[in-house]
Amino acid sequence: MWVIKLGGSLIGSEELGQWLQKIAKLGDGKVIIVPGGGLFADAVREAQQLTSLDDKTAHQMAVMSMDQFGVMMAGMNHDLATAASELELAERGWQHRGIIWLPSKMVMADDTIPTNWDVTSDSLAAWLAQKVGASHLLLVKSTKPLVPKISLSALQAEDIVDSCLKDFIGDQEFKTWVVDKSDYRYFTEAFTEDQLQLIGSQVTE
Q1: What ranges in 77-192 are assigned the alpha helix state H?
Q2: Residue 84's closest CA among 58, 108, 48?
Q3: Per-residue model confidence (pLDDT) at position 205
Q4: Residue 155 burial by CB count (10 A; 0-12/13-18/19+): exposed, middle or buried?
Q5: How many CB atoms lie within 10 A of CB 144?
Q6: Rounded distance, CA 156 to CA 39, Å?
Q7: Residue 125 has pLDDT above 80, yes or no
């Protein structure tokens, strides 16, 4: 199983549609998309600034904003299926569908996940990767490091990933990669680690 996080910065880009098309074609029930928050999460930040909204409530709303982006992506490509629970994730896998995760139900049910802005869709993608026993976690960004391997601390220093990601990938068996939003074009017949080694930047401790 692969978990691919598509950041909210892809909203409005040509690349977003291309990733969705590629995953719908090649996913085969083995690829789960994790949506970012994007402009939907930005609206939550603005609402918090205008009110006395506490971080816990804002976090819940931000996770729901990921649901919104997920629903939007499903509307952009009807060959993809949404899933909001572990059972639905398994069912979509059995159906050999490309899957879009709607995270709010599962995330809000886990009170071990910090409820603040330090936990973004990057960390939640890693949380899901552990939950489903994924082999690879891909973080699709607007830009990627131009090195085959990069430390997590370096990514955090450059503000490419959130500060809590280390808490979610530290002891896990899946491999974490940062790829560019244009890298969809390298996956032609399947999602393979061989391709990742050519194009991705693997995250190290």
Answers
A1: 86-94, 104-108, 121-132, 152-157, 165-169
A2: 108
A3: 76
A4: buried
A5: 20
A6: 22
A7: yes
- Pair type for strands 80-83 and 136-141: unpaired
3-state secondary structure of 170: coil
Asked if 9 and 142 count as a contact pair (C-beta separation under 8 A), the reply is: yes
**Domain parsing of the chain, residue ranges:** 2-204
Helix (H) or strand (E) holding 70: helix 55-76
Closest by CA to 184, choosing from 27, 1, 8, 57, is 27
Q: What is the pLDDT of residues 51-80, one digit of tens each?
A: 989 999 999 999 999 999 999 999 999 999
Beta bridge partners of 32: 3, 99
Own/partner pairs, 14-18, CB within 8 angstroms, 24+ separation? 15/181, 15/182, 15/184, 16/73, 16/76, 16/181, 17/76, 17/77, 18/184, 18/185
Class of domain 2-204: alpha beta
The amino acid that residue 128 corresponds to is L
Counting beta carbons within 10 angstroms of the beta carbon of residue 203, is it exposed (0 to 12), middle (13 to 18) or buried (19 or more)?
buried
Q: Say what the pTM is.
A: 0.96
